């Protein structure tokens, strides 16, 4: 049976000398793996459409085993991502997050749209770190670990403003409940509102978001702890991002030292 699906490439694995197994995330079927025969050959018709982050219309034959790719027609290639190591790193993080948190052949409402829209935002020059944090928040619902961001996670009060985020209580704490978790992350009201806004953000309405570096670091630190506690996945792309950030910090220090001489 031939099937046609719009999909984005999550990853590829070499299979034999000339073939690839391509993991796609489709609009209708969620995540599926297909065999692209001869995709490693320089003149293969599948070479372009099996690159990371490519969005295409894929035609594949669904038999009793692994589906076999029959045709692919490119829709988007996101060239700016491919040419920028930082954008590539964040795009890799986002697609790996989707890959780790979804099951094969299971439909996930809106995830395909989130993924493609995130690639567009990265490609168009939006802050990659903020796009990654938005994706972190949105994928928590898919992972079954949605935090309580609409009221106090301890007492349920919607009247008192949040003053902290608790990993233990899985959400915001009000000023009266803050003492229940000594390890909770303290928050200003503006940061709490930002977290809530990012969680509910419509990617179609995503515009330029300017956030202080200190706030971005706080969000990353907080969400890393939360994922470790409730999701428990290890991402190779996250380790690479840490290495990139460390390199940037070292280069910044080197530049400052040079200026002071």
From TrEMBL:
<feature type="domain" description="DNA replication/recombination mediator RecO N-terminal">
    <location>
        <begin position="1"/>
        <end position="78"/>
    </location>
</feature>
<dbReference type="InterPro" id="IPR022572">
    <property type="entry name" value="DNA_rep/recomb_RecO_N"/>
</dbReference>
<protein>
    <recommendedName>
        <fullName>DNA repair protein RecO</fullName>
    </recommendedName>
</protein>
<comment type="similarity">
    <text>Belongs to the RecO family.</text>
</comment>
<dbReference type="InterPro" id="IPR037278">
    <property type="entry name" value="ARFGAP/RecO"/>
</dbReference>
<dbReference type="Pfam" id="PF02565">
    <property type="entry name" value="RecO_C"/>
</dbReference>
<dbReference type="InterPro" id="IPR012340">
    <property type="entry name" value="NA-bd_OB-fold"/>
</dbReference>
<keyword id="KW-0234">DNA repair</keyword>
<comment type="function">
    <text>Involved in DNA repair and RecF pathway recombination.</text>
</comment>
<dbReference type="InterPro" id="IPR003717">
    <property type="entry name" value="RecO"/>
</dbReference>
<dbReference type="InterPro" id="IPR042242">
    <property type="entry name" value="RecO_C"/>
</dbReference>
<keyword id="KW-0233">DNA recombination</keyword>
<keyword id="KW-0227">DNA damage</keyword>
<dbReference type="Pfam" id="PF11967">
    <property type="entry name" value="RecO_N"/>
</dbReference>
């Amino acid at each position: 049976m031939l099937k046609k699906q719009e999909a984005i490439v999550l990853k590829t694995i070499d299979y034999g000398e000339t073939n690839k197994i391509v993991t796609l995330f489709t609009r209708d079927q969620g995540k599926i793996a297909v065999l692209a025969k001869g995709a490693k050959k320089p003149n293969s018709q599948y070479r372009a459409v099996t690159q990371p982050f490519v969005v295409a219309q894929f035609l594949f034959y669904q038999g009793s085993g692994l589906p076999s790719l029959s045709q692919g027609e490119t829709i988007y290639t996101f060239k700016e991502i491919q040419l920028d190591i930082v954008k590539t790193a964040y795009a890799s993080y986002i697609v790996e997050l989707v890959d780790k948190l979804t099951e094969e052949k299971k439909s996930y409402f809106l995830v395909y749209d989130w993924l493609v829209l995130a690639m567009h935002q990265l490609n168009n020059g939006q802050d990659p770190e903020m796009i990654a944090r938005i994706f972190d928040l949105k994928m928590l619902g898919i992972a079954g670990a949605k935090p309580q961001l609409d009221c106090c996670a301890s007492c349920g009060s919607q009247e008192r403003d949040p003053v902290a985020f608790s990993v233990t209580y899985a959400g915001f704490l009000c000023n009266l409940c803050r003492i229940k978790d000594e390890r909770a992350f303290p928050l200003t009201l503006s940061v709490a509102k930002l977290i809530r806004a990012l969680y509910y953000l419509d990617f179609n309405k995503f515009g330029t978001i300017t956030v202080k570096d200190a706030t971005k670091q706080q969000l990353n630190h907080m969400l890393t702890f939360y994922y470790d506690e409730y999701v428990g996945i290890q991402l190779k792309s996250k380790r690479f991002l840490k290495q990139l950030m460390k390199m940037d910090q070292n280069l910044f220090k080197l530049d400052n030292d040079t200026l002071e001489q």
